[in-house]
Specification:
The chain is an alpha+beta fold. It is built from five helices and seven strands. Strands 4-5-7-3-6 form a five-stranded mixed β-sheet.
């Protein structure tokens, strides 16, 4: 089988690589009922089993559902293709985790612990009748066997995860769904312009909110000054208008002897 990154499974240092494959598929479907039946059927067809399922429909809302499938590694890609065809894939995400090193390490530790267990059993057979010595050997044997059980449990977990992939399928019902188009240069430019205008509008509103208190404070100071200046100007204009007119070309006084 090809890996998610396009490379083929290979043998590292004479040992098959142990890789955990996981995927998440999010679908938009026209008819949820048909998908709810098809997903379990596809799981069975690909030799897997349904680990978990959940269906939800809120009051007045569309139905949604989720399924967690365990599918053999060899059927992983085929199952993804089949599931994606049930609706419009909104998002598909795949991950891989190489656990070859841990797998080999756990196997080696189990082998070493098994040999230690054998030596302890030999010591137990040769132990004298001293209860103290027998109990000490049995405690060591119990400790080693406990470690072996833990390591074997980890090894079973790794085998299960590497032999069977995990695929999480999420589906939501939405009729007449139109998937978003791939953005073009023009659409990106329009969106950038719209975002810039929105940012400018937000900046102006914020500036107005920040300046308004200062304008109010300034008006409280300036208004009385303007009123006083206008009052003085009005009084000065009134005093000027009350003076008698001045003849610009007065006649010389007449001579009484003439």
């Amino acid at each position: 089988m090809a890996n998610v990154d396009g490379t083929k499974s290979s043998v590292v240092a004479g040992i098959d690589r142990k890789i955990i494959y996981e995927a998440t598929v999010r679908l938009v479907v026209q008819e949820f009922g048909a998908v709810g039946k098809s997903v379990p059927e596809l799981i069975n067809q690909h030799g897997g089993y349904l680990a978990e399922a959940s269906v939800d429909r809120t009051s007045g809302g569309h139905r949604t559902g989720s399924w967690q499938a365990r599918v053999p590694v060899k059927k992983f890609e085929a199952f993804l293709v089949a599931v994606s065809a049930l609706g419009v894939p909104e998002n598909t995400h795949q991950t891989t985790q190489d656990v070859t090193k841990e797998f080999v390490d756990v196997e080696a530790r189990i082998s070493n612990s098994r040999r230690l267990e054998g030596r302890i059993l030999e010591l137990l057979e040769k132990a004298n009748d001293e209860i103290k010595d027998v109990l000490e050997v049995e405690r060591e044997l119990s400790r080693v066997r406990g470690e072996i059980e833990l390591m074997e449990g980890r090894l079973r977990f790794l085998r299960n995860r590497t032999d069977m992939t995990t695929v999480s399928v999420f589906a939501r019902e939405q009729r007449d769904y139109v998937p978003p188009e791939t953005p073009t240069f023009v659409s990106r430019a329009k969106q950038l312009l719209a975002d810039s205008l929105l940012a400018l509008q937000v900046f102006i509103k914020g500036l107005a909110i920040a300046v308004t208190p200062w304008l109010l404070a300034l008006s409280v100071i300036v208004t009385p000054i303007v009123w006083v200046l206008r009052r003085r100007k009005s009084v000065h204009a009134g005093s000027v208008s009350a003076r008698p007119p001045v003849d610009p070309d007065p006649e010389p006084p007449s001579d009484p002897d003439e």
